[in-house]
Amino acid sequence: MLLTEVLAALRIYWPLLLAASLLVHLLRNKYNNGLNKYPGHPAAAYTNWWRFFDALNRKAERTHIELHRKHGDIVRLGPNVLSFADPRAIKTIYGLNKGMTKSDFYPVQQAVAKGQRLPSLFSTKDEEYHAKYRRCVNNAFAMSSLVGYEPLVDSTMDAFIQQTEQKYSSTGRTCNFSRWLQFFAFDVIGDLTWSKRLGFVDRDEDVDGIVKFVGDFLSYAGPIGQMPFLDLLMQKNPISLQLQKWGINKTVFPVTKFALAQSADRAAEMEKIKQNGSMDERAGRGVDLLMKFTQAQHDHPDFMTDRQVLSSCTSMIFAGSETTAISLSSVFYHLAKHPRVYKKLMAELDEAAQNGSIGERDHEKVSWTEAQKLPYLDAVIQESFRVHPAAGLILERVVPPQGIDILGERIPGGTIVGCNAWVLHRRPEIFGSDVDTFRPERWLEAKPDQLREMKATMFQFGAGARTCIGKNISLLEIYKLVPTFLRNFEVQLEKPDAEWKTHNGWFVRQLDFNTVFKKRSVPLAA
Ligand code: HEM
């Protein structure tokens, strides 16, 4: 009897009940954990859909800069999410032993093979597992290993210079430079990982759609990562994963396919490393990451599995290609847009070539050691990182259950906190009042104390235990390619007055960066 009455009432009043539950849910969000005292976009306090749509709009880095300029150092981006703009927050949020963990934003970026997630160094949330993993592979990324990688970068650079001449400078064809640099960066990582280019530069095409696949994957991860449960309804829904496990749905990421093929090709060589732990230095070819990861398997047999070697290799492509291409585009674009800076840099390079600080090599290649001795080049690269860091969202961390003090505020356990490099890099008290201007000289004029602060605020590689492990490798690529390319070609914008467009798909990719190249005659050494 009572049940019949309740059902009858429900039939009449369900819209009202639904509206009331929604209202309660939204109010609970707004007053969640006392975070309602922090300002932000009005909708952000009520629902994560606000930050989902903001990320989907592909300009989230702009929103974050504007919100912080309007509201100050702490801004609420979601019912449970705070963004911090003061660089003093970096040490607390990303510092060692603070108990912070990566948020659910990261597992959205896990690759899948045969229906199983491949937790990578980048995407794992388990800090203990991460620390062990990182100890196993750290050596592969140390400064001392770079010498072994330089021949691999050189080999892709040779192909890149040759192809640029053949396809563009000799024909006068317009180049979609950001895409061309993507091809370079993806091929270098292929060369570094497997001693084999994936073939983008040689074929001037997106081989197997890998570049598009990675771009789409990241563009998916950006917004979906704001509401990670959506991933379980979409790419990683349990039904699709189960079908993959049973072999009914045979979707394999194209990068994983390439990685599996390389591992199969070199199985005998890797078995030897796994057994003996030693690597033959292959005459002039350097040592690649697959060999280093396999050596880690020999050194840490209880931890490193075949699966982890595979996942480490594929995650190099995901973490190291777009990011490097974006950073390279930033350097070349800002040079082309600032002829004064471009001219000054060329004067430094020509002078170094003439006085013998840069040696003579085919394709005017500049070595890593030589590139590090060019102060204006360094200033240009730092400034390009500053004005256009690759990651365009906050690097999310979860506050441990006991809570933590950040910038003098007690932040409750479970809150997602983070900093966005785009915001940190525009702090006028650190970088000067002209933060929106590209001006490399700021790196040369700064007094030692200020320079130290500027360097400590730079966040393009993240910070702390989860800082970019590939930083040295990417610097090797950038510090070599920029001077080498500029010594070979004059770079001009196809339309000097046009601005490029950007697309924040978690990494802030550049579009409409079209250039023409003219072969440059290199001044001879004195
Ligand atoms: C200019 C180029 C690069 C930029 C701007 C960049 C940026 C970043 C950032 C910001 C993080 C930290 C992410 C976070 O805390 O959420 C990161 C982590 C990582 N990066 Fe890079 N990266 C670059 C190049 C590379 C390269 C070339 C590789 C590989 C060869 C690489 C591999 C990784 C890995 C494996 C992680 C995860 C590290 C960990 O959690 O221990 N990155 N990168």
Ligands: protoporphyrin IX containing FE
Radius of gyration, whole Å? 25 Å
DSSP E strands, number: 14
Which regions have little confidence, pLDDT < 50, spanning 5+ residues?
Answer: none
Strand content: 5-15%
Q: Distance between the terminal alpha carbons, to the nearest Å?
A: 103 Å
Per DSSP, the total helix count is 23
Please identify the structural class as seen in this structure.
alpha+beta
Across the major sheet, the strand order is 1-2-10-7-3
Major sheet summary line: 5 strands, mixed
Please give the share of residues in helix.
Answer: 40-55%
Characterize the overall form.
Answer: globular
Mean pLDDT: 93
Explain how this protein is built.
- The structure is a single chain.
- A 5-stranded mixed sheet has the order 1-2-10-7-3, sandwiched between helices. The chain has a 3-stranded antiparallel sheet with strand order 6-14-11. A two-stranded antiparallel ribbon has the order 4-5.
- The chain has 526 residues and is of the alpha+beta class.
- The chain is 54% helix and 10% strand.
- The protein has 23 helices and 14 strands.
- The radius of gyration is 25 Å and the shape is globular.
- The structure holds protoporphyrin IX containing FE.
- Protoporphyrin IX containing FE binds next to α15 and α23.
